[in-house]
Specification:
Four copies of one chain form a homotetramer. Chain A is an alpha/beta fold. Helices cover 44% and strands 9% of the residues of chain A. The first copy, chain A, is globular and about 75 Å long.
């Protein structure tokens, strides 16, 4: 392989422990790989050039671990972090694996489940803060329903916001330097999940008690499962100042959650994702949330993890070349792309200054936008032939 | 047909003029029906029991109408309204049909197009106000892109909000009793449309200058094209106090925009839509935005329009029966649906009062939710056998 | 509940043992229900009025069972069958659960895996024949790929056909009274599965050595995951004389494989499925392949199983009422539906007898098809208001 | 732009006249470009390096053209062909644009419409033969339904096959050197179209009177609208010896028919499409069926057409480099891809020679397939960095 595109901690790549640690259990088959202790994931990711990790509580210790087991597992994790210099960028709670969460966590119909979910989260917030995480993720994978009467959606949103409000208070009162990021998903494992898209999560955040503490953590695959354009989605999140974290991976449109390695899905989309991130406004880690396919053994796990980072670097290089290519600059001008940054009303103008009569409708109707040329230039950068 | 389910103006059913007026032109074929003057649509809809209509400027008069033609067409429309008592509930602007809008209206790269779009909208706001409309719809069908570089999404959102802010000022300064409703759509006719879902629109509204003046007008088919649950979507919109208007129709999942008559799509979904609307919080007209299929002649047009209203009444009757059925009430209790309305923290409690230790994890994990029984009861009400 | 719609063995309802036996393990969570021995499933299904069962080898005994364990498990299964009178209608092989099948079975790149898959299938064909099954299903859930170079598709189809040809020989030489049915699926658990739709399987069967021994076993959800119309699909399979078996369940369009109970998905689609089956040509069992949602306990499992049968009976009653309703018969005539059964060329005519001049293009173009009225009548039968 | 990747007639690129000639009319907007006479399309395509064209009758002359107009239009088309040397590779009939075809052509309920469709097709078969076309396409865009009772699917398949059988006889009796290719599509403009995928069309062909005369013409976008893998689909068509023609373009999964230029859709998919075509077995023209977006003027039309060819050449070059890269060859071996070409049974073996005992289940289960490495190599060729 080329010697370029070698990741370093400066690139700020991070991985969920559950990504490389996925054993391959799915609805139709059993595990194909052995469990991976957190410390092993940390050491291998460090070797590959990663910067940080993200973890669920139960990625480090089992749901049913005793206190002693928990301590032992955390200690091993910490030791690996210390030895490798890998950073804990982010943490989250497993509120979906155990049967107690089969109807959700913060929006479970049963109040006891909701209380348990809060307690479990608070305990892991302590650990997250202790390990230096700066962002805490909320993926409400079981917050949803398969049928219409099962869930009172408005009550559920009340409870969802209540839960996040309580946890915001907790973080504030504890003095933790943590902010929250909601990860939307449209469906799977529930028939329909609450806060199904970036937009729904952004709107919901606006109704929380401490909206400034909460942003979004959008995942490529989750938006693409709903046929939504991820680059557009994160651009809107950036526009609202709410892109707190990202989950990069690959997906082939509306179907099961594929969690392909970054790059191995919608390639053209990935180019625009990196372009959007490079354009500025996002300062979190470049985080991958993927699953090494079930066909892979341990070697394949690390090859896929390395490839996620490598593909990001390849695309970053292409995006930079694209944006500095004089032909592209000319094509952007020909397509009047920059003109969209000019306000529609000039300084001091009001609606009174706008009249239909001022424009030549026929001429504007006939004028081509030149987008095919512009997009072809982008594609040729993607293809690496410019 | 049964004598029940006959619509009356009290049911507040309304139709877009463009629905029954659709001539059947699509990408692959020419018109199959003659143009329908607005006054004919009004008279026929009144006969069928509708309450109101919704119109684009160019549903009443052509884009290129002279002033005299425009006046004549508006007069004929008005006359029919007056004679039938049909109400103009809503109006909107055609900012997508003419070639000038091929790159969008409020987010067109070209500033002149954006100014023209504002002027065209203001002129129709005048007419809308004059005719008594209370809601003004914004469907940005051409606000989007087929390719990544063509549109600077953040600049586009700046311009989109600028446009709406200007128009809000216009309405306020004119003293019109109008509020705005944004209609989201994920794609078609553009590859990806800005504000693609209810959530994206709700979030965007929060960033406008006069957020209280602006809500959403979600369409069943538009959300279902993105595999999203429409009933969940409008429930979230209601939760935010933003369901200003609705577009009911039918769709079969992610594919082209089918605009089937209400009922003739996702039937189970339609039941929950009516249930959500009946649960309260929505006080606008029950508006249909569908297209009589191209296989239909004039008679089929009116049969399909009548069927939209009839299906709503049928479903409304079922939903009411479902909610008052003692077995359903018992099943809801068995599923602890009402318990979700109990706050997770009791009055006066804080996070300090919540502990993992308080719950019996094994017991809660093993307890079934009873949703299959509950959903089967709903289905049997839908089937009309209870 | 109503006393109508109570299933009896005459209705020939059957279930896969794996349906009611699903423990709820998915990609994101662990089992929520204990394992269900085959004999328990048999006894409960018999109580509910089922006629038969369908099984994978490893639904009865574990992949790694010893011979003694295998014998004990089969004996218990047999005993329950004998005591209840339940019939084994169908059987199949689990060629997807164990890690050895991670790259497929008959189309695994590794020849040894393919040989093992054949041997495992032959052993279960023996059991299937012994237990009286008449149809043997092939769902190639792992026959596919996530990436382009991994699988030589043409070689894979060679091996797939080789495998089925060998197994056809086996059945013939053993003298078993069994025919084969291929179950198509587009994706999940593989990125793309070979023979992704009814059509692909039908075409493939035409290229086998013993095409008359092989038909299809289409599943509602699998076709709907690809946005395909299941009723149309089984109608085409019937047209080819190849609808050997069916898998009924529920799905909400392109997303993960939901396996909802029959009726609780695309309701309008389900009506036409039953209509197509009732129209004749299918003589196999009415088989359900669904999964009781993870929210359910044991009671919910049986309620969902009972509801599958009940919903079929409800829809069957509606379909019969629809087809015998005089208004429907008149509407079908008005839509010239029966005219499609008249050959385009009259007896004795050839292309020489056909001329463009004979038809009145304008009149035919203007004539409406009356489909909205016809479909509304169907919908009202579905709603139970006619 | 690079001087490589310049198309020549030897590359055998062809375009439908309707592609560059699309005026931009869609459901929501009017034409944005003037009509393009066939002779202009021919001359411009020749300049760009194309080899051939494909036409519908009504791409050359209007549906309602007089004989004199028809002759004049054909003469102009012919003249341009003669002057440029462009070949007519393929032709087809417009059986979808006029209102007479609103319910289909060969499967219209009305017999008169079916007869008219046959006559219209025969007349254009004469022209196709005269102009030297070797393949005649059948895209049944209106052969379908929006509702269940409207179309008796089995009767429709009878009529569809009758129509093709009649036309096969016609071609045979006329002695034309033409074969037929059916183009499948799942939906749009009909709710569900008959023969919705490559597989359904292949199966149907097997039931025709002259199956050897009929193959398929699959379009990338049409298969991807149903989430199907196009490369897999054409591989199966090649396996059946039925890939008579291809329609290359771009699409972003299940949504409206986008008809993007080739390359500007699923880029990773396009790589495997070209790889499958290059692997051999297809000897038809490399045909593009796309639509220049409505944002483009005449210049954009030709830029997009040129880009289709250029992208094919770029991808062809990459695919060849991929297949000859020693690391790829080693990775293919490591993934045992070639082993799939070894029959599962050795020469002379029968089922008696296969035993489960011969394989080491645990070892095979644990062995990784190395697909992530292999796919990453492919991706790096696509990115142009190897």
């Amino acid at each position: 392989m080329s010697t370029e595109y070698v990741p370093t901690p400066e690139d700020r790549f991070s991985f969920g422990l559950w990504t490389v640690g996925w054993q391959g259990t799915d609805v139709f088959g059993t595990a194909v790989r052995p469990p991976m202790p957190a410390e092993r994931a940390v050491r291998k990711l460090a070797e590959l050039g990663a910067y940080g990790v993200n973890f669920h509580d139960n990625d480090v210790f089992d749901f049913s671990a005793t206190e002693a087991e928990r301590d032992e597992r955390i200690a091993a994790f910490r030791k690996a972090l210390a030895e490798t210099g890998l950073v804990v960028t982010t943490a989250t709670t497993n509120l979906f694996g155990h049967p107690i969460f089969k109807d959700g966590a913060f929006t479970a119909n049963e109040r006891e489940v909701r209380r348990f979910a809060l307690a479990k989260t608070m305990r892991n917030l302590d650990l997250a803060a202790e390990l230096g995480a700066r962002t805490y993720i909320f993926w409400g994978g079981r917050e949803g329903a398969e049928s219409g009467a099962a869930k009172d959606v408005r009550a559920a949103l009340d409870r969802y916001s209540e839960g996040l409000n309580v946890l915001c208070s907790y973080v504030q009162e504890k003095g933790y330097n943590l902010r929250f990021a909601i990860e939307p998903k449209p469906n799977e494992p529930r028939g329909d999940i609450l806060l199904p898209s970036i937009g729904h999560a952004l709107a919901f955040i606006g109704a929380l008690e401490y909206p400034s503490m909460v942003g979004v953590n959008p995942e490529i695959g989750h938006e693409e499962m709903a046929s939504l354009n991820y680059a557009h989605g994160i651009a809107q999140a950036l526009w609202h100042g709410k892109l707190f974290h990202i989950d990069l991976n690959g997906q082939h449109g509306p179907r099961y959650d594929q969690d392909l390695r970054f790059g191995a899905g919608n390639v053209r989309g990935a180019f625009w994702v990196v372009d959007t991130l490079e354009a500025g406004g996002y300062d979190g880690p470049i985080h991958f949330d993927y699953k090494p396919p079930r066909t892979e053994d341990d070697r394949g796990v690390w090859e896929s993890a390395a490839a996620c980072m490598r593909n990001y670097l390849i695309l970053r290089s292409k995006v930079r070349a694209f944006r500095s290519d004089p032909e592209v600059i000319a094509a952007l001008a020909a397509s009047r792309v920059g003109e969209l940054s000019s306000p529609t009303l000039a300084a001091g103008e009001t609606w009174r200054d706008v009249s239909a009569a001022e424009v030549d409708v026929a001429a504007l109707g006939a004028r081509g936008m030149g987008y095919e040329r512009l997009d072809q230039l982008a594609l040729e950068h993607l293809y690496g032939i410019r």
